[in-house]
Amino acid sequence: QLQLVESGGGLVQPGGSLRLSCAGSGFTSDFYAISWFRQAPGKEREGISCVNDRGGAPNYADSVKGRFTISRDSAKNTVYLQMNSLKPEDTAVYYCAAQKLKWPVPCGLGPLVYQYWGQGTQVTVSS
């Protein structure tokens, strides 16, 4: 059973940076897509970035494109989300999620296709 644990959230000022980590365990030889989502109170969960575990090109939501970068460290089974130029509207609980695939294909940002989820980490952007 795949398990995911997020870390790295906190309180930052507008314009600041944070790096979130998603550590996975229980991987098999199957292929996976890994994605980052966020959800603010009273709002729908929003997919913000994803990448496949075979080095495919990452995908980003328009709201974070150019500011956030997703990366992988396969030796540590960890996916990162580097967040720069943070804005107050980035405030949310951030989740990582994994989708088991039969073959590496371009990843998507729709939450319903992801089977495994972490517990979330709070990011607050405020002065």
Q: What's the gist of this structure?
A:
By secondary structure, the protein is mainly beta. The chain contains no helices and 11 strands. The strands form 2 sheets. Strands 2, 4, 5, 6, 9, 10 and 11 form a 7-stranded mixed sheet that branches. The chain has a 4-stranded antiparallel sheet with strand order 1-3-8-7, with no helix packed on it.
Task: Provide the fold topology.
Blueprint: E1 3-7, E2 10-12, E3 18-25, E4 31-39, E5 46-52, E6 59-60, E7 68-73, E8 78-83, E9 92-101, E10 116-117, E11 121-125
Keywords:
seven-stranded mixed sheet; 127 residues; globular; 50% strand; mainly beta; 11 strands; 0% helix; four-stranded antiparallel sheet
Q: Mind explaining what this structure looks like?
A:
This protein has 127 residues and is an all-beta fold. It is 0% helix and 50% strand. The chain is built from no helices and eleven strands. It has strands at 3-7, 10-12, 18-25, 31-39, 46-52, 59-60, 68-73, 78-83, 92-101, 116-117, 121-125.
Rg on CA atoms, Å: 14 Å
Would you identify the regions where 5 or more consecutive residues have pLDDT less than 50? none
End-to-end gap: 40 Å
CA-based shape: globular
Strand content: over 45%
Query: How many individual β-strands?
Result: 11
**Could you describe the largest sheet, including whether it forms a barrel?**
7 strands, mixed
Structural class: mainly beta
- Return the string of H and E elements: EEEEEEEEEEE
The helix content, as a percent range, equals under 10%
Number of helices: 0
Mean pLDDT comes to 93
